Amino acid sequence: MIMKENGNSCSGTRMSKEGETMREDLVTRTQRLLAPSLVIHSDIVVKRGHGVYLESVDGKRYLDFTSGLAVANVGHSHPKIVEAIKKQAEELVHAGCMFYYEPLAEYPERLKEVTPPGLDRFFFSNSGAEAIEGALKLARYFTGRQGILAFSGAFHGRTYGALSLTASNAKYRNRYAPLLPSVYHAPYPYCYRCDIGREPETCSLECFGHVETLLNRLIAPEEIACAVIEPMLGEGGYVVPPARYLKKLRKLCDREGILLIFDEVQSGMGRTGRWFASEHFGIVPDIMTLAKGIANGMPLSAVVSSGRIMDGWAPGTHGTTFGGNPVSLCAAAATLRVIEEERLLENAAVVGSKALERLESMKDRHPVIGDVRGRGLMIGVEFVREGKEPDRATVEKIMKTCLDRGLLLVECGGDKNILRLIPPLVITREEMDHGLDILEEAIVKSA
Question: Which region ranges are annotated with the description Disordered (predicted)?
Fold first, then answer.
Protein backbone atom coordinates (compact mmCIF):
# COMPACT_ATOMS: atom_id res chain seq x y z
CA MET A 1 0.00 0.00 0.00
CA ILE A 2 1.62 3.27 -1.08
CA MET A 3 0.58 6.27 0.95
CA LYS A 4 -0.19 9.51 -0.82
CA GLU A 5 2.35 12.30 -0.50
CA ASN A 6 -0.21 14.87 0.63
CA GLY A 7 -0.64 12.93 3.87
CA ASN A 8 -4.33 12.11 3.35
CA SER A 9 -5.91 8.90 2.13
CA CYS A 10 -8.79 10.82 0.55
CA SER A 11 -9.74 14.41 -0.16
CA GLY A 12 -12.12 16.66 1.76
CA THR A 13 -12.57 17.39 5.47
CA ARG A 14 -15.44 15.00 6.19
CA MET A 15 -13.19 11.94 6.39
CA SER A 16 -10.70 13.87 8.53
CA LYS A 17 -13.43 14.68 11.06
CA GLU A 18 -14.63 11.09 10.96
CA GLY A 19 -11.07 9.95 11.49
CA GLU A 20 -10.67 12.26 14.48
CA THR A 21 -13.89 10.87 15.98
CA MET A 22 -12.63 7.33 15.38
CA ARG A 23 -9.34 8.23 17.06
CA GLU A 24 -10.97 9.69 20.16
CA ASP A 25 -13.38 6.76 20.41
CA LEU A 26 -10.64 4.14 20.10
CA VAL A 27 -8.37 5.86 22.62
CA THR A 28 -11.25 6.11 25.12
CA ARG A 29 -12.28 2.47 24.64
CA THR A 30 -8.70 1.26 24.98
CA GLN A 31 -7.99 3.28 28.11
CA ARG A 32 -11.20 1.96 29.67
CA LEU A 33 -10.15 -1.66 29.10
CA LEU A 34 -6.37 -1.91 29.41
CA ALA A 35 -4.27 -1.70 32.56
CA PRO A 36 -2.76 1.79 32.85
CA SER A 37 0.66 0.24 33.55
CA LEU A 38 1.01 -0.16 29.78
CA VAL A 39 2.35 3.11 28.39
CA ILE A 40 1.33 4.03 24.83
CA HIS A 41 3.61 6.86 23.77
CA SER A 42 1.24 8.92 21.62
CA ASP A 43 -2.48 9.39 21.01
CA ILE A 44 -2.31 8.77 17.27
CA VAL A 45 -4.31 5.77 16.02
CA VAL A 46 -2.50 4.08 13.17
CA LYS A 47 -4.40 2.53 10.31
CA ARG A 48 -1.48 1.20 8.25
CA GLY A 49 2.26 1.35 7.87
CA HIS A 50 4.55 1.03 4.88
CA GLY A 51 8.32 1.37 4.88
CA VAL A 52 9.33 4.32 7.08
CA TYR A 53 5.81 5.81 7.14
CA LEU A 54 2.69 5.35 9.24
CA GLU A 55 -0.80 6.58 8.37
CA SER A 56 -3.36 7.42 11.02
CA VAL A 57 -7.12 6.92 10.83
CA ASP A 58 -7.56 10.64 10.16
CA GLY A 59 -5.32 10.37 7.10
CA LYS A 60 -2.20 12.02 8.50
CA ARG A 61 1.14 10.61 7.45
CA TYR A 62 4.03 10.21 9.90
CA LEU A 63 7.72 9.62 9.33
CA ASP A 64 8.52 6.94 11.91
CA PHE A 65 11.82 7.44 13.72
CA THR A 66 10.93 4.78 16.32
CA SER A 67 10.49 1.60 14.25
CA GLY A 68 8.02 0.45 16.89
CA LEU A 69 10.82 0.61 19.49
CA ALA A 70 13.57 -0.71 17.20
CA VAL A 71 11.50 -3.62 15.88
CA ALA A 72 10.50 -2.81 12.27
CA ASN A 73 14.12 -2.88 11.08
CA VAL A 74 13.24 -3.54 7.43
CA GLY A 75 10.27 -1.18 7.51
CA HIS A 76 6.58 -1.56 8.20
CA SER A 77 4.74 -4.26 6.24
CA HIS A 78 7.66 -5.12 3.99
CA PRO A 79 6.09 -7.16 1.17
CA LYS A 80 8.59 -10.02 1.49
CA ILE A 81 7.90 -10.34 5.22
CA VAL A 82 4.15 -10.19 4.64
CA GLU A 83 4.40 -12.87 1.95
CA ALA A 84 6.45 -15.16 4.22
CA ILE A 85 3.89 -14.76 7.01
CA LYS A 86 0.95 -15.48 4.70
CA LYS A 87 2.58 -18.54 3.16
CA GLN A 88 3.48 -20.13 6.47
CA ALA A 89 0.12 -19.27 8.09
CA GLU A 90 -1.63 -21.22 5.35
CA GLU A 91 0.41 -24.33 6.20
CA LEU A 92 1.12 -24.37 9.94
CA VAL A 93 0.62 -21.71 12.61
CA HIS A 94 1.59 -23.44 15.85
CA ALA A 95 3.52 -26.48 17.06
CA GLY A 96 3.87 -26.13 20.84
CA CYS A 97 6.99 -28.34 21.00
CA MET A 98 4.94 -31.34 19.92
CA PHE A 99 6.74 -32.06 16.64
CA TYR A 100 9.42 -30.88 14.22
CA TYR A 101 8.83 -28.56 11.25
CA GLU A 102 11.04 -27.10 8.54
CA PRO A 103 11.38 -23.50 9.85
CA LEU A 104 12.75 -24.86 13.14
CA ALA A 105 15.87 -26.01 11.27
CA GLU A 106 15.91 -23.58 8.37
CA TYR A 107 16.03 -20.36 10.36
CA PRO A 108 18.82 -21.28 12.82
CA GLU A 109 20.84 -22.58 9.87
CA ARG A 110 20.57 -19.10 8.35
CA LEU A 111 21.02 -17.23 11.61
CA LYS A 112 24.29 -18.96 12.48
CA GLU A 113 25.74 -17.62 9.22
CA VAL A 114 25.65 -14.10 10.68
CA THR A 115 26.12 -14.65 14.44
CA PRO A 116 29.62 -14.17 15.91
CA PRO A 117 32.05 -17.10 15.49
CA GLY A 118 31.23 -20.07 17.68
CA LEU A 119 27.76 -18.85 18.65
CA ASP A 120 25.78 -21.54 16.83
CA ARG A 121 23.27 -22.94 19.32
CA PHE A 122 19.85 -21.34 19.83
CA PHE A 123 16.86 -21.33 22.14
CA PHE A 124 13.88 -19.43 20.75
CA SER A 125 11.29 -17.65 22.85
CA ASN A 126 8.97 -14.67 22.40
CA SER A 127 10.38 -11.47 23.91
CA GLY A 128 13.57 -9.78 25.01
CA ALA A 129 12.74 -10.32 28.68
CA GLU A 130 12.20 -14.05 28.02
CA ALA A 131 15.58 -14.23 26.29
CA ILE A 132 17.25 -12.61 29.30
CA GLU A 133 15.51 -15.06 31.65
CA GLY A 134 16.75 -17.95 29.52
CA ALA A 135 20.30 -16.58 29.40
CA LEU A 136 20.41 -16.22 33.19
CA LYS A 137 19.17 -19.77 33.69
CA LEU A 138 21.69 -21.09 31.18
CA ALA A 139 24.57 -19.26 32.85
CA ARG A 140 23.66 -20.48 36.32
CA TYR A 141 23.07 -24.02 35.06
CA PHE A 142 26.37 -24.20 33.20
CA THR A 143 28.59 -22.64 35.87
CA GLY A 144 26.86 -23.89 39.00
CA ARG A 145 27.26 -20.37 40.38
CA GLN A 146 24.55 -17.95 41.51
CA GLY A 147 26.01 -14.41 41.28
CA ILE A 148 25.12 -12.01 38.47
CA LEU A 149 26.97 -8.82 37.58
CA ALA A 150 24.86 -6.12 35.90
CA PHE A 151 25.25 -2.41 35.21
CA SER A 152 23.49 0.81 36.19
CA GLY A 153 21.41 2.31 33.40
CA ALA A 154 20.63 -1.15 32.05
CA PHE A 155 17.24 -2.14 30.72
CA HIS A 156 16.82 -5.90 30.31
CA GLY A 157 13.06 -6.28 30.71
CA ARG A 158 10.33 -6.30 33.33
CA THR A 159 9.87 -9.96 34.29
CA TYR A 160 11.35 -10.75 37.69
CA GLY A 161 14.78 -12.03 36.65
CA ALA A 162 15.19 -9.39 33.94
CA LEU A 163 13.85 -6.69 36.25
CA SER A 164 16.45 -7.62 38.86
CA LEU A 165 19.08 -6.56 36.31
CA THR A 166 17.20 -3.52 35.00
CA ALA A 167 18.50 -0.30 36.54
CA SER A 168 17.58 2.48 34.15
CA ASN A 169 14.75 3.93 36.23
CA ALA A 170 13.64 3.24 39.79
CA LYS A 171 9.95 3.22 38.77
CA TYR A 172 10.41 -0.13 37.02
CA ARG A 173 11.41 -1.73 40.34
CA ASN A 174 9.14 0.23 42.68
CA ARG A 175 6.97 -2.00 44.94
CA TYR A 176 8.22 -5.24 43.34
CA ALA A 177 10.86 -6.24 45.88
CA PRO A 178 12.23 -8.67 46.80
CA LEU A 179 13.80 -9.27 43.43
CA LEU A 180 16.25 -11.98 42.35
CA PRO A 181 19.05 -12.31 44.90
CA SER A 182 22.80 -12.22 44.19
CA VAL A 183 22.57 -9.48 41.55
CA TYR A 184 25.25 -6.80 41.82
CA HIS A 185 25.41 -3.56 39.82
CA ALA A 186 28.44 -1.59 38.68
CA PRO A 187 28.27 1.76 36.84
CA TYR A 188 27.90 1.62 33.05
CA PRO A 189 30.73 3.51 31.30
CA TYR A 190 28.64 6.57 30.39
CA CYS A 191 31.40 8.96 29.39
CA TYR A 192 29.25 12.08 29.01
CA ARG A 193 28.13 11.64 32.63
CA CYS A 194 31.14 9.92 34.17
CA ASP A 195 30.43 8.72 37.71
CA ILE A 196 33.90 9.75 38.85
CA GLY A 197 34.19 13.00 36.92
CA ARG A 198 36.69 11.98 34.26
CA GLU A 199 36.83 13.31 30.71
CA PRO A 200 37.17 10.90 27.74
CA GLU A 201 40.45 12.54 26.67
CA THR A 202 42.17 11.78 29.99
CA CYS A 203 40.24 8.69 31.08
CA SER A 204 42.20 5.65 32.26
CA LEU A 205 39.10 3.54 32.84
CA GLU A 206 39.07 4.31 36.54
CA CYS A 207 35.35 3.43 36.37
CA PHE A 208 36.31 -0.21 35.94
CA GLY A 209 37.57 -0.02 39.48
CA HIS A 210 33.94 -0.22 40.61
CA VAL A 211 33.78 -3.74 39.15
CA GLU A 212 37.02 -4.75 40.85
CA THR A 213 35.90 -3.27 44.18
CA LEU A 214 32.61 -5.14 43.92
CA LEU A 215 34.49 -8.43 43.44
CA ASN A 216 36.77 -7.68 46.38
CA ARG A 217 34.14 -6.56 48.88
CA LEU A 218 30.69 -7.90 47.97
CA ILE A 219 31.00 -11.20 46.12
CA ALA A 220 33.99 -13.33 45.19
CA PRO A 221 34.49 -13.81 41.43
CA GLU A 222 34.29 -17.60 41.79
CA GLU A 223 30.67 -17.15 42.85
CA ILE A 224 29.64 -15.13 39.79
CA ALA A 225 27.92 -16.99 36.97
CA CYS A 226 27.75 -14.16 34.44
CA ALA A 227 28.19 -10.50 33.63
CA VAL A 228 25.27 -9.09 31.63
CA ILE A 229 25.80 -5.89 29.68
CA GLU A 230 24.36 -4.04 26.69
CA PRO A 231 27.23 -3.44 24.22
CA MET A 232 25.34 -0.24 23.45
CA LEU A 233 23.15 1.04 26.25
CA GLY A 234 19.54 1.18 25.06
CA GLU A 235 16.64 2.55 27.09
CA GLY A 236 19.11 3.82 29.68
CA GLY A 237 20.46 6.50 27.36
CA TYR A 238 21.81 5.25 24.01
CA VAL A 239 25.39 5.27 25.24
CA VAL A 240 28.35 3.91 23.27
CA PRO A 241 30.87 2.51 25.78
CA PRO A 242 34.64 2.68 25.26
CA ALA A 243 35.85 -0.42 23.41
CA ARG A 244 38.66 -0.85 25.93
CA TYR A 245 36.13 -1.09 28.77
CA LEU A 246 34.33 -4.02 27.13
CA LYS A 247 37.68 -5.64 26.31
CA LYS A 248 38.75 -5.32 29.93
CA LEU A 249 35.46 -6.90 31.00
CA ARG A 250 36.00 -9.74 28.52
CA LYS A 251 39.49 -10.33 29.94
CA LEU A 252 38.15 -10.36 33.51
CA CYS A 253 35.44 -12.87 32.61
CA ASP A 254 37.95 -15.15 30.90
CA ARG A 255 40.28 -15.03 33.89
CA GLU A 256 37.59 -15.77 36.46
CA GLY A 257 35.45 -18.27 34.53
CA ILE A 258 32.52 -15.82 34.32
CA LEU A 259 30.24 -16.03 31.29
CA LEU A 260 29.94 -12.73 29.40
CA ILE A 261 26.39 -12.08 28.18
CA PHE A 262 25.71 -9.36 25.63
CA ASP A 263 22.13 -8.11 25.54
CA GLU A 264 21.66 -7.28 21.85
CA VAL A 265 17.87 -7.14 22.05
CA GLN A 266 17.82 -3.54 20.81
CA SER A 267 21.25 -3.18 19.21
CA GLY A 268 21.22 -6.39 17.17
CA MET A 269 20.01 -7.41 13.71
CA GLY A 270 21.64 -4.57 11.76
CA ARG A 271 20.53 -1.66 13.93
CA THR A 272 24.07 -0.29 14.38
CA GLY A 273 25.21 -0.81 10.78
CA ARG A 274 26.56 -4.28 11.56
CA TRP A 275 24.68 -7.42 12.39
CA PHE A 276 25.51 -6.98 16.08
CA ALA A 277 26.91 -4.10 18.11
CA SER A 278 29.58 -6.42 19.50
CA GLU A 279 31.25 -6.38 16.08
CA HIS A 280 32.16 -2.70 16.54
CA PHE A 281 34.30 -3.71 19.52
CA GLY A 282 35.81 -6.94 18.21
CA ILE A 283 34.45 -8.95 21.14
CA VAL A 284 32.58 -12.25 21.08
CA PRO A 285 30.37 -12.90 24.14
CA ASP A 286 29.70 -16.34 25.60
CA ILE A 287 25.93 -15.80 25.38
CA MET A 288 23.92 -13.28 23.38
CA THR A 289 20.25 -12.35 23.58
CA LEU A 290 18.25 -11.21 20.54
CA ALA A 291 14.67 -9.96 20.04
CA LYS A 292 12.99 -6.79 18.69
CA GLY A 293 14.21 -6.57 15.05
CA ILE A 294 14.79 -10.31 14.69
CA ALA A 295 11.41 -10.96 13.01
CA ASN A 296 10.37 -7.41 12.06
CA GLY A 297 7.30 -7.31 14.25
CA MET A 298 6.42 -10.95 14.84
CA PRO A 299 7.07 -12.10 18.43
CA LEU A 300 10.40 -13.91 18.54
CA SER A 301 13.58 -13.83 20.60
CA ALA A 302 16.64 -16.00 20.96
CA VAL A 303 19.28 -17.05 23.43
CA VAL A 304 22.44 -17.67 21.41
CA SER A 305 25.50 -19.51 22.65
CA SER A 306 28.06 -22.19 21.80
CA GLY A 307 27.78 -25.95 21.86
CA ARG A 308 30.27 -25.99 24.74
CA ILE A 309 27.81 -24.08 26.91
CA MET A 310 24.40 -25.00 25.57
CA ASP A 311 24.75 -28.68 24.66
CA GLY A 312 24.81 -29.67 28.32
CA TRP A 313 21.51 -27.88 29.07
CA ALA A 314 19.55 -31.01 29.99
CA PRO A 315 16.15 -31.72 28.36
CA GLY A 316 13.28 -30.13 30.26
CA THR A 317 15.41 -27.73 32.30
CA HIS A 318 14.08 -24.86 30.19
CA GLY A 319 11.12 -24.78 27.82
CA THR A 320 8.47 -22.82 25.97
CA THR A 321 5.03 -23.26 24.40
CA PHE A 322 5.04 -20.44 21.87
CA GLY A 323 8.79 -19.91 21.34
CA GLY A 324 10.02 -20.84 17.87
CA ASN A 325 6.58 -20.33 16.40
CA PRO A 326 6.71 -21.36 12.71
CA VAL A 327 5.18 -18.10 11.45
CA SER A 328 7.62 -16.02 13.47
CA LEU A 329 10.58 -18.10 12.30
CA CYS A 330 9.58 -17.62 8.67
CA ALA A 331 9.25 -13.88 9.22
CA ALA A 332 12.71 -13.89 10.79
CA ALA A 333 14.21 -15.81 7.87
CA ALA A 334 12.64 -13.33 5.45
CA THR A 335 14.01 -10.44 7.54
CA LEU A 336 17.53 -11.84 7.20
CA ARG A 337 17.14 -12.14 3.44
CA VAL A 338 15.83 -8.59 3.07
CA ILE A 339 18.71 -7.15 5.12
CA GLU A 340 21.18 -8.96 2.88
CA GLU A 341 19.46 -8.43 -0.48
CA GLU A 342 18.77 -4.73 0.09
CA ARG A 343 22.20 -4.13 1.68
CA LEU A 344 20.63 -2.59 4.73
CA LEU A 345 23.72 -2.92 6.92
CA GLU A 346 25.55 -0.65 4.51
CA ASN A 347 22.57 1.70 4.29
CA ALA A 348 22.31 1.94 8.10
CA ALA A 349 26.01 2.71 8.37
CA VAL A 350 26.01 5.36 5.63
CA VAL A 351 22.74 7.12 6.50
CA GLY A 352 23.55 6.92 10.19
CA SER A 353 27.00 8.42 9.69
CA LYS A 354 25.56 11.33 7.72
CA ALA A 355 22.88 11.85 10.36
CA LEU A 356 25.51 11.96 13.12
CA GLU A 357 27.50 14.54 11.14
CA ARG A 358 24.45 16.75 10.76
CA LEU A 359 23.45 16.34 14.40
CA GLU A 360 26.95 17.36 15.48
CA SER A 361 26.60 20.55 13.45
CA MET A 362 23.18 21.11 15.06
CA LYS A 363 24.84 20.69 18.45
CA ASP A 364 27.22 23.54 17.57
CA ARG A 365 24.26 25.79 16.77
CA HIS A 366 21.97 24.80 19.63
CA PRO A 367 23.45 24.76 23.17
CA VAL A 368 20.46 22.77 24.40
CA ILE A 369 22.04 19.72 22.73
CA GLY A 370 24.64 18.44 25.17
CA ASP A 371 25.76 15.26 23.41
CA VAL A 372 25.24 13.30 20.21
CA ARG A 373 26.25 9.65 20.03
CA GLY A 374 25.49 6.37 18.34
CA ARG A 375 26.35 3.81 15.70
CA GLY A 376 24.42 3.22 12.50
CA LEU A 377 20.75 4.00 13.02
CA MET A 378 20.88 3.78 16.80
CA ILE A 379 21.43 7.44 17.67
CA GLY A 380 20.93 9.36 20.90
CA VAL A 381 20.63 13.14 21.24
CA GLU A 382 20.93 14.36 24.84
CA PHE A 383 19.30 17.65 25.81
CA VAL A 384 20.58 19.70 28.73
CA ARG A 385 20.29 23.00 30.54
CA GLU A 386 23.27 24.94 31.83
CA GLY A 387 25.76 22.75 33.64
CA LYS A 388 24.69 19.54 31.90
CA GLU A 389 21.44 19.40 33.85
CA PRO A 390 19.04 16.98 32.10
CA ASP A 391 16.34 18.90 30.21
CA ARG A 392 13.27 16.71 30.04
CA ALA A 393 10.90 19.61 29.47
CA THR A 394 12.59 20.61 26.21
CA VAL A 395 12.48 17.01 24.97
CA GLU A 396 8.74 16.88 25.66
CA LYS A 397 8.20 20.13 23.73
CA ILE A 398 10.30 18.90 20.82
CA MET A 399 8.49 15.57 20.62
CA LYS A 400 5.10 17.27 20.60
CA THR A 401 6.11 19.74 17.89
CA CYS A 402 7.60 16.94 15.79
CA LEU A 403 4.48 14.83 16.18
CA ASP A 404 2.33 17.76 15.05
CA ARG A 405 4.56 18.09 11.99
CA GLY A 406 4.50 14.42 11.13
CA LEU A 407 7.64 13.02 12.79
CA LEU A 408 7.30 10.28 15.43
CA LEU A 409 10.06 10.18 18.06
CA VAL A 410 10.59 8.47 21.41
CA GLU A 411 12.75 9.46 24.36
CA CYS A 412 14.98 7.46 26.70
CA GLY A 413 17.33 7.84 29.66
CA GLY A 414 16.65 7.85 33.38
CA ASP A 415 15.66 11.52 33.15
CA LYS A 416 13.88 11.14 29.79
CA ASN A 417 16.07 13.90 28.33
CA ILE A 418 17.45 11.92 25.40
CA LEU A 419 15.81 11.57 22.00
CA ARG A 420 16.53 8.28 20.29
CA LEU A 421 16.57 8.17 16.52
CA ILE A 422 15.85 4.60 15.43
CA PRO A 423 14.16 4.70 12.01
CA PRO A 424 13.80 1.56 9.88
CA LEU A 425 17.03 0.53 8.18
CA VAL A 426 15.39 1.12 4.79
CA ILE A 427 15.35 4.89 5.33
CA THR A 428 16.89 6.97 2.55
CA ARG A 429 19.22 9.96 2.89
CA GLU A 430 16.38 12.21 1.73
CA GLU A 431 13.95 10.82 4.33
CA MET A 432 16.54 11.19 7.07
CA ASP A 433 17.24 14.79 6.04
CA HIS A 434 13.51 15.53 6.04
CA GLY A 435 13.18 14.16 9.56
CA LEU A 436 16.19 16.14 10.77
CA ASP A 437 14.74 19.29 9.18
CA ILE A 438 11.60 18.82 11.28
CA LEU A 439 13.68 18.09 14.37
CA GLU A 440 15.79 21.23 14.02
CA GLU A 441 12.71 23.37 13.45
CA ALA A 442 11.26 21.92 16.65
CA ILE A 443 14.48 22.67 18.56
CA VAL A 444 14.35 26.28 17.42
CA LYS A 445 10.69 26.54 18.42
CA SER A 446 11.38 25.08 21.85
CA ALA A 447 14.03 27.70 22.67
Answer: 1-21
